[in-house]
Amino acid sequence: MTNDQDASLTPPVALVTGAARGIGRAVTRRLLGDGYHVGALDHDASALADLQTGLAAGLRAHCQTLVADVADESAVQSAIEQLVSTHGQLDVLVNNAGIADPFNGPIESLSLADWNRVIGTNLTGYFLCTKHAAPLLRRRRGCIVNMASSRAYQSEAETEAYAASKGGIVALTHALSISLGPDVRVNAVAPGWIDVRDQQPGDDTPAPLRAVDHAQHPGGRVGGGDDISGLVAFLCSPDAGFITGQTLVADGGMTRKMIYQH
Ligand code: NAI
């Protein structure tokens, strides 16, 4: 629920990008469970159909699937128009769609096309969705949550395009919080390792992770989709009404851990 919402009057409306799989799927399910109408946007039509089919009948009616590429401005614009023509309002934007594989190979052989593909989806896609959602969000005193990454702050080798896109999202988040305030709060979540293999189309049960995968985290485990969807729900709630321009890291403590070898 956003700041000024009276749930008894009109259920809030959220747009979640990259909703068909992974974190976006978990966020979509959480917001639907919290009583939102959700526009579930993704460029993968069949994974969106799978998301819709897997919802409980009571929730399915509140989930509108929108097939669009976030890097395509006219597609973004018409998806938002479609959602608003159904509900007449927009309260929450969750910018999440992204190329989630961070590895780009050696910088010396990274093509401009591959660089632009990552920046175009992960960063420009957030700009385009925000640009077209902003007037609607202002009207509802709504909020935006951007999915960044702990890779905005620390790196493995050969991840330049992804890291730059996520660092850009942290900066975009604080810039927007100034431009859109006080009408719209804008925050970001920076997840660490989030195991989303259970948030994919199909019924395959993922193989368990290794003990070392969990144990290396100060928090004792790898994250799951619900760790992030809960944080997104909090940032959209009145309990977060005094938080804007921030990026909250949810990584089981990995960015606080020194890793010198002794
Ligand atoms: P995922 O690959 O499971 O899901 C990404 C979704 O975005 C897919 O449904 C895909 O079809 C959609 N998508 C990709 N490009 C798109 C485009 N151009 N237009 C519309 N939809 C598009 O990835 P995951 O892991 O759920 O990641 C979601 C977000 O969280 C990404 O922004 C990623 O960078 C971020 N993240 C994920 C972490 C993780 O460990 N899973 C860690 C840190 C950040």
Order of helices and strands: EHEHHEHEHEHEEHEHE
Query: Cofactors and ligands present?
Result: 1,4-dihydronicotinamide adenine dinucleotide
Q: Rounded to an integer, what's the Rg over CA atoms? A: 18 Å
- Measured distance between first and last alpha carbons: 48 Å
Question: What's the short version?
Answer:
The chain is α/β, with parallel strands linked by helices.
Describe the overall structure.
Helix content is 41%, strand content 15%. Helix 1 packs across helix 8 and helix 5 packs parallel to helix 6. It starts with 12 loop residues before the first strand and ends in a 12-residue tail after the last strand. The protein contains eight helices and nine strands. By secondary structure, it is α/β, with parallel strands linked by helices. The mean pLDDT is 96. Strands 3-2-1-4-5-6-9 form a seven-stranded parallel beta sheet, sandwiched between helices. The protein has a two-stranded parallel ribbon with strand order 7-8.
